Amino acid sequence: MGEVDLNSIQADSVVDARGVSCPGPLLEAKKGMGNVQVGQILEILSNDPGSRNDIPRWANKVGHDYLGYLSVDGADRMFVRRNK
What is the domain-level CATH number for residue 55? Predict the structure, then answer.
């Protein structure tokens, strides 16, 4: 898989977990993954600093592709592609 331009990603579904503390953003991401099909991208919005570690670890553990994150307006936009 080559480099992905995070600024150009159009997510297929967005989970807004801003204002939710750990483990809330991770739980919301798990639920949100049910709204996208294999090959589609879920965007998770979070301002909890632990999410930068939790979301990539979870994605790798369950077999999804963590594409990265962008920091925008005090929150992170994290991108995960569903693989199964």
Answer: 3.30.110.40
